[in-house]
């Protein structure tokens, strides 16, 4: 199993944002993580990527525990993510954002840069080429030299995915990637996620757009008040009475 | 001839200080490029200056070992200060580093080996060093119309600008490398940079220590240019002055700090004829600057406009040559 959450909990003061969660993601799988607002989905991502440490339980990647590891170490081990409220490196260009994402897969230091050694020039060329490929893959080639902050919203979402892919992950965590996208953009996002999976990368995706979840995910887990209340194929989960009750209990979320 | 007048030792010293101040601007710029506002430059500068002065006066070491030693001592202090201080950010880090500078100053004020408030006189001078060097080569009188003191002073200038050029090249090349991108990423969003695989603690420490090294280097050189150092040379006025180089010149770009250092090194000399009024003019200019151009003299937009013009010219040439694409 690629990623395993074993009885993971996170408490903020008295509130259990995540409560005894068990979840597994296999290589090349697309798993959906859904649930009403405040259910604890983003907290799960923060726990996996090391921004928060669990109050209980353990998270394993390729059977090694991620407990106590810093976020950048976890990324180096193969976990990448995007953020619900986009966090790009705003004044860097689209290309530079992706180049920065390749940091943990490259080696040359400042002295090699100073003397422009062969190793430096070679690595720099490869980093640039790979960044160009990733930009093209998410359809942002024309925006190469535009500052990230100046990009249209939909492009920022895609750039964030490309930057995450630049870390060469085994699994990518996408936090509401379709939020704020129009139908055409959402369609091409699905296409992109399928292509990501084809390269052998597993995807764990938080999403409120049920059409997207239904058509994309192999498996869906449903969180409510930090607890997993259902898990299974999209169709089974959609018809689960407890899931329907969880969503109906809170009007603001539209379960289509 | 007026050309010769420009080369008098007084002018040459101002030109030398321009180089030293430019290195100081770099030392402020480096931590800032990784998102840290550090006002420790004056403290690190004094560590470099005193290390160089003590090593050459008390231990008789030659100038070309004391200058690197001064820079290294400051870098070491940077590591020691970095561990506690880099937990802080923003204005808290600024205050902590300013406090560090004051601690160092008071320390040098009270130590025996630094000669306390009286300062350290008769530090071996770069000019004298080069004079002796030329004399040892058998050079006595004039060379191309320059007497030996002027020739030595000119060599000091060349030496300082050579060191500055090396520092600028290092900073620029680092900026366009993996390390520099990591620094920019940490500055832009520390949390996101961590999740992108960048160890922010290491990157911030690196930028901070590099800044300390350059400040120490500038201090060591200035000790060997001025003959005399005292704790008062490195008080918080100095720290604020270095801050001004970068804020006035433009903090987004390496060139901004360099321009600011050049302008602020020369401006007081140009205003000298106004005597004490010059500080009023100086202050008014700074205030006006902050009102009308808060981002500093140079910013990315200005640079883009220049490079766009260049690029357009290049595109034109390319079209004529009808060969491939630019870049
Ligand atoms: N750092 C934190 N400190 C305190 N409480 C937090 C923190 N992060 C999240 N919470 C709380 O934990 C609960 C779960 O939040 P989380 O952001 O994980 O929900 P979510 O499922 O992502 O919701 P949404 O769909 O709105 O994004 C919420 O009640 C939230 O207020
Ligand atoms: Mg969320």
Describe this structure in words.
Chain A has helices spanning 41-48, 71-77, 94-101, 110-115, 118-137, 153-165, 183-198, 210-216, 234-239, 241-248, and strands at residues 3-12, 15-25, 30-34, 56-61, 64-65, 79-81, 171-175, 202-206, 219-224, 227-232. Chain A has 256 residues and is of the alpha/beta class. Chain A has two domains: 1-78 and 169-256, P-loop containing nucleotide triphosphate hydrolases (Rossmann fold, 3-Layer(aba) Sandwich); 89-168, no CATH class. Chain A is globular, with a radius of gyration of 19 Å. Chain B has two domains: 3-294, ABC transporter involved in vitamin B12 uptake, BtuC (Orthogonal Bundle), CATH 1.10.3470; 297-327, no CATH class. Helix content of chain B is 75%, strand content 0%. Chain B contains 14 helices and no strands. Chain B is globular and about 65 Å long. Chains A and B meet through helix 2, helix 3, helix 4 and helix 5 of A and helix 7, helix 8 and helix 9 of B. The complex binds adenosine-5'-triphosphate (ATP) and magnesium ion. Magnesium ion (MG) is lined by residues 41-42, 84 of chain A.
Q: What general form of chain B does the structure show?
A: globular
Individual helix count of chain A: 10
According to CATH, what is the class of the largest domain in chain B?
Mainly Alpha
Give the count of structural domains of chain B.
Answer: 2
Short précis:
The complex is a heterodimer of chains A (256) and B (327). Chain A is an alpha/beta fold and 256 residues long. In chain A, 39% of the residues lie in helices and 23% in strands.
Offer a few descriptive terms.
heterodimer; A: 256 residues; alpha/beta; Rossmann fold; 2 domains; six-stranded mixed beta sheet; 39% helix; 23% strand; globular; disordered C terminus; B: 327 residues; mainly alpha; ABC transporter involved in vitamin B12 uptake, BtuC
């Amino acid at each position: 199993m690629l990623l395993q959450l074993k009885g993971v909990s996170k408490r903020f003061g008295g509130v259990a944002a995540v409560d005894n969660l068990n979840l597994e993601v296999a290589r090349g799988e697309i798993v959906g993580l859904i649930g009403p607002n405040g259910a604890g989905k983003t907290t799960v991502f923060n726990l996996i990527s090391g921004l928060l440490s669990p109050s209980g339980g353990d998270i394993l990647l390729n059977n090694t525990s991620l407990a106590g590891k810093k976020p950048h170490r976890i990324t180096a081990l193969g976990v990448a993510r995007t953020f619900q409220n986009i966090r790009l490196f705003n004044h860097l260009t689209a290309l530079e954002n992706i180049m920065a994402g390749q940091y943990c897969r490259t080696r040359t230091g400042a002295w090699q840069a100073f003397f422009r050694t062969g190793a430096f020039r070679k690595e720099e060329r490869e980093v640039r080429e790979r960044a160009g490929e990733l930009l093209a893959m998410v359809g942002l080639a024309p925006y190469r030299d535009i500052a990230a902050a100046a990009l249209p919203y939909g492009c920022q979402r895609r750039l964030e995915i490309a930057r995450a892919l630049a870390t060469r992950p085994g699994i990518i965590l996408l936090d509401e990637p379709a939020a704020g996208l129009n139908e055409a953009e959402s369609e091409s996002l699905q296409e992109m996620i399928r292509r990501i999976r084809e390269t052998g990368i597993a995807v764990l995706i938080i999403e409120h757009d049920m059409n997207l979840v239904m058509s994309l995910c192999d498996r869906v887990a449903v969180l409510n008040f930090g607890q997993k209340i259902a898990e299974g194929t999209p169709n089974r989960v959609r018809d689960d009475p407890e899931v329907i009750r969880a969503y109906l209990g809170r009007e603001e979320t539209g379960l289509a | 001839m007026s050309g010769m007048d420009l080369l008098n030792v007084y002018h040459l010293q101002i030109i030398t200080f321009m180089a030293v101040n430019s290195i100081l601007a770099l030392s402020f710029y480096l931590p800032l490029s990784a998102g840290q506002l550090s006002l420790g430059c004056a403290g690190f500068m004094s560590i470099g200056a005193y290390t160089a002065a003590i090593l050459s006066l008390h231990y008789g070491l030659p100038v070309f070992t004391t200058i690197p030693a001064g820079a290294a001592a400051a870098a070491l202090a940077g590591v020691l200060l970095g561990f506690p201080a880099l937990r802080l950010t923003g204005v808290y880090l600024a205050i902590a580093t300013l406090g560090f500078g004051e601690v160092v100053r008071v320390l040098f004020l009270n130590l025996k080996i630094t000669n306390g408030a009286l300062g350290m006189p008769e530090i071996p001078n770069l000019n004298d060093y080069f004079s002796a060097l030329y004399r040892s080569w058998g050079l006595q009188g004039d060379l191309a119309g320059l007497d030996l003191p002027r020739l030595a002073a000119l060599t000091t200038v060349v030496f300082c600008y050579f060191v500055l050029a090396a520092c600028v090249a290092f900073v620029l090349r680092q900026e366009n490398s993996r390390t520099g991108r990591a620094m920019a990423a940490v500055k832009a969003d520390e949390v996101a940079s961590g999740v992108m695989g960048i160890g922010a603690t290491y990157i911030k420490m690196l930028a901070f220590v590099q800044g300390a090294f350059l400040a120490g280097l500038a201090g060591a050189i200035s000790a060997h240019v001025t003959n005399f150092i005292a704790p008062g040379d490195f008080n918080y006025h100095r720290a604020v002055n270095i801050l001004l180089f970068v804020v006035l010149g433009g903090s987004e770009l390496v060139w901004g700090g360099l321009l600011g250092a050049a302008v602020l090194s020369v401006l007081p000399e140009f205003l000298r004829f106004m005597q004490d009024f010059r500080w009023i003019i100086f202050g008014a200019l700074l205030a006006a600057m902050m009102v009308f151009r808060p981002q500093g003299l140079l910013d990315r937009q200005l640079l883009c406009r220049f490079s766009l013009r260049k690029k357009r010219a290049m595109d034109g040439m390319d079209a004529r040559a009808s060969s491939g694409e630019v870049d």
